[in-house]
Design a protein that fits this description.
Beta-galactosidase, Chain A, domain 5; 28% helix; 17 helices; 13-stranded antiparallel β-sheet; alpha+beta
Length: 655
């Protein structure tokens, strides 16, 4: 029996991340590959394109679709199914899994007139629960990376896996079968022949991008294989299509494939932004990955929340509800979570694009109901950490408050559709400093004079008083949109007990935050109380030297200081009002303390590895705005401070 090889081609990852790059890919490699296939009718190939690329081809290059139809009629090519937006399937509710698959299947059938019966998944992020969904959507087989196959199973034997009475066949995609550098055609074919054992019908998939496929067919090995197929010579290596193989195969090895992910991504899952081997008995999963990268986990939490809102929306405008589902599916794209092909986390720009799509989905859901939108305040375990978070859905903003630190960890404007609280935290190896807390809005610090001077210089503190405190819920009034939290800690090396009562009253366009700091010790307490707000970069079309935010300060005397273009290392005393302008998105944030404060601001740049060789580059920045007051409290005494934050829409000037 011959060893069976299936060649799979997919678009370069740049096409999925930037629609403008598809034309370049089409002209440089896609068109050449399709022309080659058309002129070599005995060269079988399996294609894996997501719905974005397929729809773009239909609109911009219908001639390519016509060629596909011709190749399909020859039974020379086969299309794989999948999610329309290349989602991370294990993170989706079943309704979204099947919805994405059916949307792509409908698009494919409309283009080439045939439904797929096999599927490939984004970055081989697998979970056994997918079996029932795939089978119910008409998928007979799955192509999966060989590194996920249990070591006691041959990578070259067709497997069958089952879940809840549903089954799915599995064919391995093997990187080790790619031609080696310097390998001759004869050596390569002999290497494939040597894999045939026990007279059983073995099979493997070799995956290429279109650009790599062009290099392959232009190589000596590619030319040699093409000549063999053109002459239809019998060989111990049979090039075929996976669907054709599955149709005729009768022997499958029963197996169980645990949850896992492609090796390239798994090596990033153990420690943040450090590639490392997995020496445990268990494979890393996408959930391990999310637990390592909190910024990805927060995006996933938002995605699940919007999916829940859509599923609970009954009646109303069906067109708007369907449009909301489509925006949700767009945000579920795996490219918003991972960089391909390195496997490192997606950059901040991709996550902000996803937040924008999710907020658009929520706006559509609000509009599709027959009744007007009602603002709401709910408490539930939003981020699945075992503790309740506080979720506000207001007319102009959405917010999520976390008990850890009592911070606003998500702050979505329903005008710009951006999440302004999605700031990164610094990592020593890349940013030259390490943050011990998650950045967001309304983070508090109590610092002695030496710590405070360090904080003013680079917004760094080792103190964990309040910023890492788990606050306790003291009062919650959903009708008033009022939340009262209390946190306790020990201040300075003397371990002086202190407490902070922190209340939020959320309005349609902002927050009113009240602080009551109390000295719980029999000794006097002196220090500096800081309220920190972090506004992340949400616009990524700016030049490297251009700032998204500008500041205007009003001093105690009422004097307006004017616009401050450079927000770095700014320190002012006796400030009564702060205006932060986001000119690109047409918003202004007005910060009003109830009494004069001192003010400090800085801009933090974050650099992260984005390539397989771990080359770092600037991926995001955050404006840190800190309000602070001197503290001098006797035993048992309190001090009270209030801050109002209002979000104002500003009309953009038309050019």
């Amino acid at each position: 029996m011959a060893f069976n090889i299936c060649i799979k081609i997919s678009a370069d990852e740049a096409c999925y991340m930037d629609i403008q790059k598809i034309e370049k890919e089409y002209q440089q490699s896609f068109k050449t590959a399709v022309s080659f296939l058309y002129s070599h009718p005995n060269f079988p190939v399996t294609l894996g394109l997501n719905g974005v690329v397929l729809s773009w081809l239909k609109k911009n290059h219908p001639e390519a679709i016509e060629v596909f139809r011709e190749l399909i009629s020859r039974k020379q090519i086969e299309f794989l199914g999948g999610g329309y937006y290349s989602p991370v399937f294990p993170l989706l509710f079943p309704v979204d899994r099947s919805g994405q698959i059916e949307k792509y299947t409908t698009t494919l059938k409309d283009c080439i007139g045939k439904r797929p019966n096999g599927i490939s998944i984004f970055y081989d992020i697998w979970d056994p629960s997918l079996i029932t969904t795939f089978q119910s959507c008409g998928m007979e087989y799955l192509i999966l990376d060989s590194t996920l196959i249990p070591s006691n199973k041959s990578s070259y034997l067709p497997l069958i896996v089952s879940e809840q009475g549903k089954s799915l066949k599995v064919i391995s995609s093997c990187k080790n079968l790619l031609p080696a550098q310097g390998e001759t055609p004869e050596e390569y074919i002999n290497r494939l022949k040597s894999l045939e054992k026990n007279n059983s019908s073995q099979i493997a998939v070799i995956s290429f991008t279109f650009s790599d496929f062009i290099k392959f067919i232009k190589s000596d090995i590619g030319k040699y294989i093409a000549s063999l197929l053109d002459k239809q010579n019998e060989s111990d290596v049979n090039f075929t299509l996976p669907g054709l193989y599955i149709k005729n195969a009768v022997n499958f090895i029963r197996s169980y494939i645990p949850a896992g992910m492609n090796y390239d991504a798994a090596q990033w899952a153990k420690k943040a932004f450090v590639k490392s081997e997995n020496k445990s008995r268990f494979p890393f999963t996408i959930h391990d990955y999310l637990n390592t990268y909190t910024e990805n986990k927060k995006l996933c939490d938002k995605m699940m929340f919007i999916s829940m809102l859509i599923s609970q929306c009954h009646g109303g405008d069906k067109l708007r509800r369907n449009a909301a589902s489509n925006k949700l599916w767009e945000a579920q794209s795996g490219f918003n979570f991972l960089n391909i092909p390195s496997g490192s986390p997606a950059i901040a720009e991709q996550r902000q694009n996803a937040y924008k799509a999710l907020n658009e989905a929520e706006k559509l859901i609000r509009d599709c109901k027959n009744t007007s939108f009602h603002e709401s305040f709910t408490s539930f375990d939003y981020n699945t950490d075992g503790l309740n978070e506080y979720v506000f859905q207001m007319e102009k903003l959405n917010a999520v408050i976390n008990r850890k630190g009592g911070i606003v960890e998500e702050f979505d404007s329903m005008v710009s559709l951006a999440n302004y609280a999605a700031s990164l935290s610094r990592i020593e190896n890349f940013d030259g400093s390490r943050d011990l807390y998650n950045r967001g809005l309304f983070i508090e610090h109590l610092l002695d004079d030496s710590e405070f001077q360090t904080y003013l210089q680079d917004k760094k503190t080792t103190s964990q008083v309040f910023s890492q405190t788990l606050f306790e819920e003291k009062k919650l009034e959903t009708k008033r949109f009022f939340l009262l939290l209390e946190g306790k800690g020990n201040y300075s090396s003397l371990k002086t007990p202190v407490s902070l009562r922190k209340s939020f009253t959320v309005t349609s366009s902002g927050f009113m935050v009240q602080y009551i700091l109390k000295n719980e010790s029999p000794l006097s307490l002196k220090g500096n109380f800081v309220s920190e707000l972090n506004f992340t970069q949400t616009n990524f079309s700016l030049a490297d030297s251009e700032q998204q935010y500008s500041l205007e300060l009003i001093e105690k005397s009422g004097t307006k200081k004017g616009t401050v273009q450079d927000c770095c290392c700014l320190n002012k005393e006796d400030v009564s009002n702060i205006l932060i302008k986001d000119k690109k998105n047409g918003l202004s944030f007005v910060i009003e303390p109830n009494e004069e404060c001192s003010f400090s601001s800085d801009v933090i740049d974050f650099v992260r590895p984005t390539d397989d060789d771990q080359t770092v580059r600037k991926t995001s920045r955050t404006l840190v705005a800190s309000l602070y007051w001197n503290v001098d409290l006797g035993p048992g005494m309190e001090m009270e401070k209030n801050i109002n934050l209002s979000v104002i829409s500003v009309k953009k000037n038309k050019k």
